[in-house]
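Now for a sample.
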Amino acid sequence: MEPVGRNHPCPCGSGRRYKECHGAISAARPAETAAGPDLSWVPALMQAALAAQKRGNCGEAAEGYRRVLAVDSSNFDATHMLALVEYEDGHPENALSLLRRAIELRPDIGVARHNLRTLESMPRVEQEICRDVLPRLIARIEPVEDIERFASSATRVHLVIADDVDATLQSPFERLRRAFDRTRLRLWAQPEVSFEIADVHTIDATARPEGGLVVLFGAARSPAAWLREARPERVLLVVVRDEPCAVIDRIDEISALADPHPALLCATRTLAERLQLPQPAVVPEADSVAAVGT
């Protein structure tokens, strides 16, 4: 085949001249096309990243591993070690994705498969540990058996949606809302929760509950960003899902930020039994709520 003239149309069919298309690419990277990029610096950077990881400096370690992967995306060690750093830094989904990539790169090395199995099992292990710990925290909370009496002394009631209110939670939410005095009740929602409820105010930098009784419906979203500034008289945590670790986190946050002895309710008796929490402390049943309103 005759060489293509630099001013001739590029054979790729782009319509551009060869020197402005693939001819320009070839000219720009002569070293890489001949022998590939210079990667002699990679071992030293890998050692530095590993040293940073051992010191607990996840940011520096991750930056080093990512620099290696930017020029050598098939580097098993950088992929595998970055996965561990991501997990240590609180990004488990990123860690799992990187471990699966490491296994693709080197299926013959078993350590990546072992770490993947370990990380995949961690949420279940953590939940079981929390399930065992949660009943031991009962001394730190106030189980609420009579919600109307508990809320009667509050100057106002802020009912905060802190978890997605799907079809399974619509009924307990409505029963809880009807248990409060409507004249003192205001509805709020943590950012990014999903619900279909009218007259709800979203908590942000300029609007949040102030004083009164704060009722957190759900434990999925942390109130740490605003709870201290709200200065509530009391805080009531309503547990709506079988997620013991989240419940423990919220009890710890509420105790530290606003109410040293937070109150607690469960959405249903079944959930209270599952979490080994006081079964009388549940959202009022439909008939009892109707009796209160009559």
Observations:
- Residues 25-34, 288-294 have pLDDT under 50 and may be disordered.
- The domain at 141-293 is CATH 3.40.50 (Rossmann fold).
- The first strand starts at residue 142 and ends at 143.
- The two ends are 95 Å apart (CA to CA).
